[in-house]
Amino acid sequence: MTSATAVKEVHTTHERQGFLKTYIFSLDHKMIAKQFLLLGLFMIWIGGGLALLLRWQLAYPEQPLPLIGASEQYLETGEPQSSMDRFWDSELSKSDDEQGWLTKRMPVGIITPAFYNALFTMHATIMIFFVVMPILIGCFGNFLIPLMIGAGDMAFPSLNMLSFWIAVLAGIIMIAGFLVPGGHAASGWTAYAPLSSDPTWTGVDWGQNLWCISLVVLGISSLMGSINYITTIINMRAPGMTFMRLPLVIWSLFIVAILLLLALPVLTAAIAMLLFDRLAGTTFFNAAGGGDPLLWQHLFWFFGHPEVYILILPAMGVVSEILPVFSRKPIFGYKAMVLALSGIAFLGWIVWGHHMFQSGMNPALGATFMISTMLISVPSAIKTFNWLGTLWGGNITFPAPMLNALAFVSMFVIGGLSGIYMASTVVDIFIHDTYYIVAHIHYVVFGGSIFGLFAAAYYWFPKMFGRMMNQTLSKVHFWFTFIPFNCTFFPMHILGIGGHMRRIYNPMQYEFLQQFEGWNIFISISAFVLGFSQLIFLFNFFWSMFKGKKADDNPWKATTLEWTTATPPPHGNFDVLPTVYHGPCEYSVPGAKKDFTMQTENVDLQAMSGNGGNGA
Amino acid sequence: MSLATTAVEPAESPLTPESWGKLGMWVFLAGDAMSFGALLAGYGAIRAGSLDWPIPQEILGIKLTAFMTFLLICSSLTMVKGLSAIKHGDSKGLVRFMLVTALSGLVFLGLQAYEWTHLIQHGLTLTSNPYGSYLFGTTFYLITGFHGAHVTVGVIYLTIIALRGMKGKYSAENANGVEIAGLYWHFVDLVWILVFTFVYLI
Ligand code: HEM
Ligand SMILES: [Cu+2]
Q1: Cα–Cα distance between B136 and A143 in angstroms, integer?
Q2: Domain B20-201 is classified in which CATH homologous superfamily?
Q3: CATH superfamily, region A22-78+112-547
Q4: Is this model's pTM higher than 0.90 or not?
Q5: Tens of pLDDT along A43-58?
Q6: Residue-wise pLDDT tens digits, B180-190
Q7: CA-to-CA distance for B28 and B138, rounded, in angstroms?
Q8: What's the complex ipTM?
Q9: Which of A308, A430, B107, B132 sits at 20 to 30 Å (Cα–Cα) from A156?
Q10: CA gap A530, A525 in Å, rounded
Q11: How far is A239 from chain B (nearest CA, A)?
Q12: What is the per-residue pLDDT across A211-234, written as a single tens digit (0 to 9) for each?
């Protein structure tokens, strides 16, 4: 469809390869993307399952779980009523070291305090490192970067493959932690010392060690990923694809790769110190030995705050792609979007102290961190207003990708606003370590990253698998996610203001929290609905992969390069390397023949509209 | 700015696969620098908060390490010579200089091993220090050990370059692999100068 002036033959003409080369040790970025997707979709069920166990305990503290728990009569009378009762009966009669895995963690189906700690630690760890990162960065980064910049593959395909398999290895190590004696890591995903550094505090031994080792291994995988992403984006853009013509999702993945590159080594170094403390008896984080537990917090959050932006920026990029397509309007303020991204990436390094206001830091330092944190909400607000500006007056339609993108914008606003409250040191004294923080986290990471992830999955599924996802199921899934999501997490703000601490085993132990029992039950029921409605997505995903309507090359009438090639794209992506003539968002240009102009279309938009194309 | 131009703007960067590796190495080194940075920052924080931090020069042998530093700086020089040799098409020169560079790295490691054994014999270990804060020993071994690991990797890397050079894999037009190895080796030297300054001298 284009008359590319500089036609370059794609250098690779691959013959068919065997099963192993195609599906397992594939070097093709599109296959690696799908592998990352499967990894994330597998882990999300583990992470989600842990969350539902947590919610059971909070709503019905120390009551046996449904299905696997012992019956009430059995607990009262000791007379087994059901097969589960008989199972627990025989388990309890065994000696300590003969008891099974389940009995150690939830005897008669009641979660123990120690297991509860492992549950919330591993829920967060898995969701952050093995769900959001593999899917948003591993999958969509891999899939989109070469396709959207017009390259045949990544710069270093073997490194790419290694990066995936090392991530799998990290996942296996992390899961193995559930099996070791002493239980899995239980010091929170933030692994604060001395809880994490000294096994005698928690009784957790190899669980925490494996947690550390897994994250070091994952750090290697992500280092390889960022080397690939950065090099590819800088060096492999198609002719005409200048930086200011890059789709915004590529910009955000580029910035994320830089953040990952600079942030994860800091975590790795901190974890190395932690492992030395645990295994070699050093005292980095032990005040009695001359060390400093606060050093851990500083190092962790120096990594940790950029990390939360690592989780959200790709989703922001995804949304910046989707909103223009379904409003048929160019993105509002492309340049401002790029500047805001860079601003976030820069400011993200100087705000980590906002997680430590209550650690006893110097108030002057606290005030500095307060100001820098409030500053960082400026670029976030710029992005939000630009999204709204994109929608304004647009010709809006509401297919599933758009619904999820709109959910992203609105939920991110709520999460961002609660962030500002917490950024104020005085307010944070009151809400630190309460459910208010949990509400904030979930509005940004679930409301933000996960809705962004769904938006991306619905939007690019046709390109990935060559078929459309079922729209009815997609919409049902959306509403069954959006409504229970808000029912689950919004009330947590109320609990937090009421003083409900996070990471507590049994809120009913505290008189002042007993008034919240109703809320906790409501939240948990919403959470169960939220969890189970994800089955709709799972079904739709795999069913559509084989049975969905065949997708054509550009089902959404979008302008970026991935929609110019075949669906699904061939090995090497493009038959001829594309040449780029426009920015990524030429929608509804006045005077143009269609309401969208592909980046590869060699037409003079300026002449047609008389005043130049849209956009930057 | 007009977006629609009939003439194609050239991409801002060359599409030459040769340049990818070099950029990849730079990116890697930026990440690696952050891990050294974190270790050194942690070291600084602990030392600043310590009441019984010993004076490094009184425990560590500055003369020996000054020589080790000199050795590494010289090896950076031979690295440069090796690259310039192959750029002039002299692959014998390349192999010779690569071997000398790798050998300097090896001597450096040997001297470090000697230094460590000596210190351990005097009671300075990962978890003990007769002269003051235990963490002096901990940070010393962690940081110099992490650097030593980098030197070890570097020696292996340079040896591979030398072996490939013997097989004639490099030429004046194809010296990219050597240049990339050079980036790594210079980085390891540079980091050592920082380590030497912060851990030994200050
Ligand atoms: C408008 C921008 C934001 C501001 C001003 C902000 C502010 C804060 C503050 C002050 C805290 C610490 C509260 C405390 O522990 O007392 C916090 C915690 C947190 N934030 Fe944000 N935040 C913002 C955006 C985000 C985004 C975009 C994400 C992730 C995608 C995020 C994820 C988190 C997480 C995970 C925590 C809790 C960490 C923990 O203690 O486990 N935040 N935020
Ligand atoms: Cu933060």
Answers
A1: 47
A2: Cytochrome c oxidase, subunit III, four-helix bundle (1.20.120.80)
A3: Cytochrome c oxidase-like, subunit I domain (1.20.210.10)
A4: yes
A5: 999 999 999 999 999 9
A6: 999 999 999 99
A7: 27
A8: 0.91
A9: A308
A10: 9
A11: 5
A12: 999 999 999 999 999 999 999 999
